[in-house]
């Protein structure tokens, strides 16, 4: 898994990082019961950044990005997304969720709705977009992820890779400014990983702000502008990919990289 | 050294299966005569089936249809077949089928001269219950089948108010004003929400209609009736009976228990302490008490607590109790469906920014209810059959009527035919529900 299984040239011209802060996390802590999952997290994400979060399982990387759209609640510290602070205020939560797209390991498509309905549901009900316009947008994004011909099928009739691409299209239909990916390729067959990664690369090429929990180190090397390594609920090391992979500083990172890249 | 290298040069085409494994012969061989033991068992079973059917069919079809009493029936049997044993006396059904269907509901309920009145030839007998039943079919059709024109939903919306008026009669203003309560609730929500906020709006939308129903409907309806009188003759509750009563109680309990059950199931999952406690308490209490106890409470005890002279219709009391009973079961069935949904569905809905009610309505409930269809329909069937329990508190459902019919000297001693007829009608309804649920499951199956 050391090299990205893609043969395409990556266009970095649009992958510009701006000075504007998209996400700001300050001294954030989270506990599950008495277990301290996230410890004093400080992280700034600028618009246009592509960040890959790596780390052993149980290190809190999924929990971290799930806190950003409050699928998990943090107990102390601040999370500010696009200028809005996440608190228990439902209005802010709904606002942030409609600005932040998310893709899950198990896709979480709605099995009782067609692909097209999956994509138009949130725009129609949350954004109050007229149905026709929502459907046009949905078809646009389905074309982008290269499965417009599946629009009238149900998720259960699609392969894993296709489902994950639909999930990405579904998020994009809300025109989010930030995309979160929670191990998007971990549940996929090797043959299908490539098609999902290609879609994500395309998204990165268009300048989307992305936070990505993944074990695809090839993707991290080629697309990310920053790699964050987490262990035991803390950010242990973060750096540019070249530096991170070739010259890791902490012992824990070295051990992790040797295990995941060693074969 | 073995040669492990192998390359297929030609793909094998698909072939027909062997003739002995397809068609009737193949089926019989695989399922009936598969070895000596199975062949013997098949033959023994066929002999058993033959004897059962021979007795049952001759009892059912070599029978007496026209007689005015059981004695006459037996005379005819002796004259025709030489014995009274093994032949049904359907004459009792022929004689009393109207009573079994409608109880003592008057065919032409009227004081003389009033519309819908005496048999003037203008209205057929049992016009009101029959019309109610036809309208029921029309009201239910668009809910059950999505190919039915959506415009029929108007009938569905009007039916809950029209049906009581048709069945019990009286002034039309009562049902109209009761319906107006929903309008009041809607207006209160629309107009007051901007003034007193979302929660206040919801409370007002519930409180105002309740006040209206409890204290004002009677007065306003009576006032309107004195100005513009539109009424049909009243029929008392104690005259209701037969399958009409079973269907009435069954339909109301089924129709109301599903929405109430959904709300209770959601309440039980709520994070709000008071809501959750109330729902759990209600469900556990109602489920922990036999339906007969609740019916006795409805028929006897309730009068003790109500102020003297309060008119509280017995059928209405039974309807409330049966509905509450069904709702508690429904809540648990729906909760089972909710529990079976993967957590990812909630997260998927949340991550798109859908709020709680949108997520419930669009994502969670359609799937949870689909999962619970077998359980929901089982509960429906159970409720419908439980309506026979009302005979214990003196209402004349079909079973109660079978006792009443036997009390007549002419039909004293007849059991099988009455119970067979009642069982047959119940079976038709319950089998219909069961088939519909299977159709629905097939229709909603989306390859996952």
Report a brief summary of the structure.
The complex is a heterodimer of chains A (263) and B (448). With 263 residues, chain A is an alpha/beta fold.
Rg for CA atoms of chain B = 29 Å
Task: Give the CATH class of the largest domain in chain B.
Answer: Mainly Alpha
What is the number of independent domains of chain B? 4
- Biggest sheet layout of chain B: 2 strands, antiparallel
> What best-fitting shape of chain B do the alpha-carbon axes yield?
flat
**Biggest β-sheet of chain A: count, sense, barrel?**
6 strands, mixed
How many strand elements of chain B? 2
The CATH homologous superfamily of the largest domain in chain B corresponds to MetI-like
N- to C-terminal distance of chain B: 49 Å
Largest sheet: spatial strand order of chain B: 1-2
Roughly what is the average pLDDT of chain A, rounded to an integer? 89
The sequence of SSEs of chain A as H and E is EEEHEEHEHHHEHEHEEHH
Number of helices of chain A: 9
- Which descriptor suits the 3D outline of chain A? globular
Rounded Rg of chain A? 18 Å
State the helix count of chain B. 15
* Whole-number mean pLDDT of chain B: 88
Structural class of chain B: mainly alpha
As an assembly, this protein is heterodimer
Order of helices and strands of chain B: HHHHHHEHEHHHHHHHH
């Amino acid at each position: 898994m050391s090299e990205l299984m893609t043969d395409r040239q990556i266009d970095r011209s649009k992958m510009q990082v701006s000075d504007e802060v998209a996400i700001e996390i300050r001294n954030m802590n989270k506990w599950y019961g008495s277990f301290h999952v996230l410890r004093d997290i400080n992280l700034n994400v600028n618009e246009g950044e592509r960040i890959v979060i790596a780390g052993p399982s149980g290190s809190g990387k999924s929990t971290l990005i799930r806190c950003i759209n409050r699928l998990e609640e943090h107990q102390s510290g601040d999370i500010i997304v696009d200028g809005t602070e996440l608190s228990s205020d439902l209005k802010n939560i709904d606002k942030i969720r409609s600005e932040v797209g998310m893709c899950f390991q198990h896709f979480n498509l709605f099995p009782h709705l067609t692909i097209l309905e999956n994509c138009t549901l949130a725009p129609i009900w949350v954004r109050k977009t007229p149905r026709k316009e929502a459907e046009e947008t949905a078809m646009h994004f389905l074309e982008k992820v290269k499965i417009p011909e599946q629009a009238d099928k149900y998720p259960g009739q699609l392969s894993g890779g296709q489902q994950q691409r639909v999930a990405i299209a579904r998020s994009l239909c809300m025109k989010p400014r930030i995309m979160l990916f929670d191990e998007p390729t971990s549940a996929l067959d090797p043959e299908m990983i490539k098609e999902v990664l290609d879609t994500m690369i395309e998204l990165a090429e268009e300048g989307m702000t992305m936070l990505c929990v993944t074990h695809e180190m090839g993707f991290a090397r080629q697309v990310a502008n920053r790699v964050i390594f987490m262990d035991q609920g803390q950010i242990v090391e973060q750096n540019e990919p070249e530096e991170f992979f070739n010259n890791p500083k902490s012992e824990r990172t070295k051990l992790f990289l040797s295990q995941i890249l060693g074969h | 050294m073995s040669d492990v290298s192998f390359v297929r040069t030609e793909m094998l085409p698909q072939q027909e299966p062997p003739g002995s494994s397809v068609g009737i012969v193949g089926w019989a061989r695989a399922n009936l005569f598969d070895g000596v033991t199975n062949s013997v068992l098949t033959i023994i079973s066929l002999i058993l089936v033959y004897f059962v059917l021979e007795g049952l069919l001759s009892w059912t079809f070599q029978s007496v249809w026209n007689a005015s009493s059981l004695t006459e029936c037996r005379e005819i049997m002796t004259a025709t077949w030489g014995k009274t044993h093994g032949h049904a006396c359907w004459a009792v059904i022929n004689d009393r089928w109207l009573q079994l269907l409608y109880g003592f509901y008057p065919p032409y309920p009227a004081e003389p001269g009033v519309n819908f009145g005496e048999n003037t030839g203008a209205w057929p007998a049992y016009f009101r219950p029959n019309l109610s039943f036809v309208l029921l079919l029309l009201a239910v059709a668009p809910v059950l089948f999505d190919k039915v024109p959506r415009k029929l939903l108007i009938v569905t919306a009007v039916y809950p108010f029209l049906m009581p008026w048709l069945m019990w009669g009286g002034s039309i203003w009562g049902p109209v004003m009761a319906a107006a309560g929903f309008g009041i609730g809607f207006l209160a929500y629309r107009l007051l929400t901007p003034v007193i906020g979302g929660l206040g709006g919801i409370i007002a939308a519930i409180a105002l209609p309740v006040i209206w129903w409890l204290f004002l409907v009677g007065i306003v309806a009576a006032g309107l009736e004195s100005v513009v009188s539109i009424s049909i003759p009243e029929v008392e509750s104690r005259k209701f009976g037969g399958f009409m009563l079973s269907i009435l109680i069954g339909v109301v309990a089924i129709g109301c228990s599903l929405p109430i059950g959904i709300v209770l199931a959601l309440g039980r999952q709520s994070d709000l302490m008071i809501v959750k406690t109330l729902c759990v308490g209600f469900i556990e209490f109602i489920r922990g008490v036999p339906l007969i106890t609740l019916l006795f409470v409805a028929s006897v005890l309730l009068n003790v607590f109500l102020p003297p002279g309060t008119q509280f219709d017995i059928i209405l009391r039974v309807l409330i109790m049966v509905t509450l009973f069904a709702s508690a079961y429904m809540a648990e069935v729906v909760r089972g469906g909710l529990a079976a949904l993967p957590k990812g569905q909630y997260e998927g809905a949340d991550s798109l920014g859908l709020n709680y009610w949108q997520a419930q309505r669009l994502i969670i409930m359609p799937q949870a209810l689909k999962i619970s269809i077998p359980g929901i329909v089982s509960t429906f069937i159970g409720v419908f059959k439980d309506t026979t329990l009302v005979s214990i508190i003196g209402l004349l459902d079909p079973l109660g009527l079978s006792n009443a019919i036997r009390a007549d000297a002419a039909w004293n001693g007849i059991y099988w035919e009455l119970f067979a007829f009642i069982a047959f009608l119940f079976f038709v309804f319950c089998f219909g529900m069961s088939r519909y649920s299977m159709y629905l499951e097939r229709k909603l199956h989306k390859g996952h």
